[in-house]
Design goal:
There is one protein chain. This protein is mainly α and about 120 residues long. It is about 85% helix and about 0% strand. It has two domains: about 1-65; about 70-115. The longest helix is centred in the first third of the chain and has 32 residues, at about 5-35.
């Protein structure tokens, strides 16, 4: 118990500072996208924030050493499955919607004029 407490405190500090940094980066991404007039700036800012929080939680779990490698591997497998499911749903389930979103993000007239 005595050796576990410092690891837990460090993990808590990692989560607190990581959450703060994630919020700062998410706000920076949102502000940049708004200034660059990129549609869905709010969505991109939230994605950046949640990705950073995910990796911060993984670092904290590694610091506490709860469950060893199995917890981290399970978490990464679930994350990979979620990403694969979203990619398939985006690509196969909504071809028209995906094309409309890509056209909204990168209009064809801009793509044709770029060298």
């Amino acid at each position: 118990m005595v050796l576990f407490t410092p690891k837990l405190l460090v993990a808590m500090l990692v989560v607190v500072f990581g959450s703060y940094c994630a919020r700062v980066v998410g706000s920076a991404v949102y502000t940049y996208c708004e200034d660059a007039q990129i549609p869905d700036a709010d969505l991109l800012g939230r994605i950046a924030r949640y990705l950073i929080v995910t990796f911060v939680v993984m670092i904290a779990i590694g610091q506490v050493e709860v469950g060893g490698d199995i917890v981290q591997r399970t978490f990464l497998i679930l994350l990979a499955g979620l990403v694969l499911a979203l990619a398939l749903a985006f690509g196969l389930g909504g071809k028209e919607w995906a094309a409309a979103m890509l056209e909204r993000w990168w209009p064809r007239h801009k793509r044709d004029n770029d060298p």
